[in-house]
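STRUCTURE:
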C-alpha cells in the first residue's frame, strides 16, 4: 500500500472511529461525517486522475456536491435542535417525544 493510499484510508478510519465512539455532540458527529466524505472525495479524485479515465472524472464532483448538500442539511438540523432543545447533546434528543 502506498503512503498516499494509507493516508486516505487512515483519514477515513479516523473519521469513522470518531463517529462511532465520540457521539456526545451533534456537531462533532457532523464533523466526522464531513471528514469521511472529504477523504472519499480526495481518494476518488486521485483515482480518476491516476487512471486517466474521462468517463469517471465527473464522479468526484458529484460526490462533493452531495457532501455539500449533506452538510447543509446537517447544519439545518443542528440549528433546529439547538433552538427547540437548547443544546446539541445527542443524549437529550429523543425522537419519541414531541
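SEQUENCE:
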Amino acid at each position: 500500500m502506498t503512503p498516499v493510499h494509507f493516508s486516505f484510508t487512515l483519514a477515513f478510519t479516523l473519521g469513522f472511529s470518531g463517529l462511532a465512539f465520540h457521539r456526545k455532540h451533534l456537531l462533532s458527529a457532523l464533523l466526522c461525517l464531513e471528514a469521511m466524505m472529504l477523504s472519499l472525495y480526495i481518494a476518488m479524485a486521485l483515482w480518476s486522475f491516476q487512471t486517466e479515465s474521462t468517463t469517471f472524472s465527473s464522479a468526484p464532483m458529484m460526490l462533493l456536491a452531495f457532501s455539500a448538500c449533506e452538510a447543509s442539511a446537517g447544519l439545518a438540523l443542528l440549528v433546529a435542535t439547538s433552538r427547540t432543545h437548547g443544546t446539541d447533546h445527542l443524549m437529550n434528543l429523543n425522537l419519541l417525544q414531541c
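REMARK: The mean pLDDT is 85.
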